[in-house]
Write a structure and sequence with these properties.
The chain is an alpha/beta fold. It has 13 helices and twelve strands.
């Protein structure tokens, strides 16, 4: 199992890696060897095959009933590695095989990762997690919502659950973007309200458009992301006659070159998991307006509490947006407080260091 006495770097098996896994792989380079099991059998975008990084070959299928024979095959496939990292519900059969055969086959430690709330839910899926994670060395979750699910619904011991928020490159967001460095040019005297809604947040975005109409004409609304522009939203913009003040620039490759241009960032609705885009806006010193409750209220600096609105309360959203637009000093103070919190709690360097400690502890081996 272990390569500890061979002089080789520890060998890590990643099953359906996502999110922070890619940053982790890049961060440690040749200090670890990585084998990846992915849905298409290739490597995710941004990773290139090398002597230290390769896709798995002939790994047993992740689909099928958890029969003893299939579980045994999955368990046997883990034996060459020093650590197994699984990601999401679709990788839980590997965790189940690990629980069933860990002692009999002397399997390496396993750490499971969950990044988004399980909207399908159900008692059956909760029970499967409870059993499958029975001998895992850790369960990584990004925030409060999933931590509660892990402790209550999945009944995991408190010592097993590790809350590690996705790391943000806060230094990149500290640099003020150029006003002409984006698809849109921010002219002198203009102020920008920015939003980056999740897919399917049409109602929340409609609420933001209706709230925005009351701002002074020098304010522009910039809505990032693909799929944000729908017929209903275009019709509402037409009705309110603000076509010349609302822009949909589309996908963003480098958020650090955009978010710092926003004078206010609005999260119009609840997010499906950890609000990473909002944390990026925090790192860019944006004052933020967001709905109360859920993960976002835990993430924001306390100075932002005055500008939170009750979910679905369009009147409150409009009042907060208008009030913050009129108060330059408040925007500056809240923005700086948000950045300070992002640096303290969500910096990528600190997240990577936390992963290093967790994985080293699981392997009982430093790297």
């Amino acid at each position: 199992m272990s390569s500890g006495g061979s002089g080789l770097a520890p060998h890590i098996l990643h099953v359906l890696p996502q999110g922070e896994a890619l940053a982790f792989i890049n961060a440690f380079g040749n200090a670890l060897r990585h084998t990846l099991v992915t849905a298409d059998g290739g490597l995710p975008a941004g990773l290139q095959q090398s002597a230290y990084l390769k896709p798995a070959s002939n790994f047993p299928s992740l689909e099928g009933l958890p029969t003893p024979g299939r579980m045994q095959k999955l368990a046997r496939a883990m034996t060459p590695f020093d650590l197994v990292l699984t990601y999401g519900y679709e990788a839980l059969d590997v965790a189940m095989a690990h629980t069933l055969f860990k002692d009999a086959m002397d399997l390496p430690a396993l750490v499971h990762h969950e990044t988004e709330p399980d909207r399908r839910g159900g008692l059956k899926r909760s029970w499967y997690r409870r059993i499958a994670l029975g001998k895992s060395a850790g369960l990584v979750v990004p925030g409060e919502e999933l931590e509660e699910a892990a402790l209550v619904d999945w009944q995991q011991p408190m010592g097993r659950v590790k809350k590690i928020a996705p790391g943000i490159d806060t230094k990149a967001f500290a640099r003020r973007p150029k006003k002409d460095g984006f698809r849109l040019i921010k002219h002198d005297g203009e102020f920008w309200v920015g939003a980056w809604p999740e897919e399917g947040a049409e109602e929340a975005l409609l609420s933001l458009v209706r709230a925005f109409v009351h701002l002074d004409p020098k304010w522009q609304l910039i809505v990032l992301g693909e799929g944000a522009r729908t017929r209903s939203i275009e019709a509402e913009i037409d009705r309110l006659q603000i076509n010349d003040r609302v822009y949909f620039p589309g996908a963003v490759r480098d958020p650090a070159k955009v978010l710092g241009l926003f004078d206010i960032f609005v999260e119009p609705g609840a997010t499906g998991g950890f609000p990473e885009r909002m944390v990026q806006a925090m790192a860019a010193s944006c004052p933020i307006i967001a709905p109360r409750g859920g993960e976002m209220e835990y993430v924001l600096a306390p100075q932002s509490s005055e500008w939170l609105f009750d979910p679905g309360n369009d009147t409150m959203l409009g009042a907060n947006l208008l009030g913050l637009a009129k108060e330059k000093e408040a925007r500056s103070a809240v923005g700086e407080a948000n950045r300070a919190r992002a640096v303290k709690e969500f910096d990528r360097t600190k997240a990577i260091a936390t992963y290093r400690r967790l994985y080293s502890s699981a392997m009982k081996r430093e790297f």
